[in-house]
Prior knowledge:
Layout: H1 8-39, H2 43-70, E1 80-82, H3 83-95, E2 100-105, E3 110-112, H4 113-128, E4 134-143, E5 146-154, H5 162-168, H6 181-193, E6 197-202, E7 205-210
Parallel strand pairs: 2-4
Antiparallel strand pairs: 1-3, 4-5, 5-7, 6-7
Helix pairs in contact: 1-2, 2-3, 3-4, 4-6, 5-6
Amino acid sequence: MTEPAISDLELAALVSSRICHDIINPVAAIANGLEMLDEEQDASMRDAAFDLIRKSASQASAKLQFARLVFGAAGSAGAEIDLRDAEKVAREFVLTTGKHQLVWEGPAATLPKNKAKLLLNLVALGILALPRGGTIAVAITGTPPEVGFTVRARGEAARLNDQVKGLLLGGNGVALDAHSIQPYYASRVAAASGMTVSAEARDGEVEFKGA
């Protein structure tokens, strides 16, 4: 299995495209809501516009906060991330889908930033594994900072395609794009954190592990 030929510049570009893809819909909805306010005089329609703006702004904020931890520097070299903050950000991000819920079991502790980033990347992959919705169950074991974690995506039509599994394990010769960059990036974060990742599919469940 060979790693995709990709430079750091290309990686940065694809990660940026991924973030833009995630937030463009709620930002566009905010713009639509503002247009409605400019044009509508009916009180009920203006109330609907305000509701759209509030909901979309909340979604955009949750997605950006999640991206900040998943893809961002999250502080200087050697920084740690509080797992309580990671859980809060992950919970709000999962809720933006409208069809997933998060169950989180783990200690109130801090982790080296790359380990926390890997965990959140696996949460994002759990969502991708459940196109029809379901439960993302996070379990963190061990004594920080020496921890392992399992992310189980349970729901109807749970799936793990070969591309995601191959890229998560380091690459399978496929062309990378904004959609496939998430598992590849997770593999890079795992290597930087000194951890290994695995992914397995079962009936109604996909399990991601970091150890």
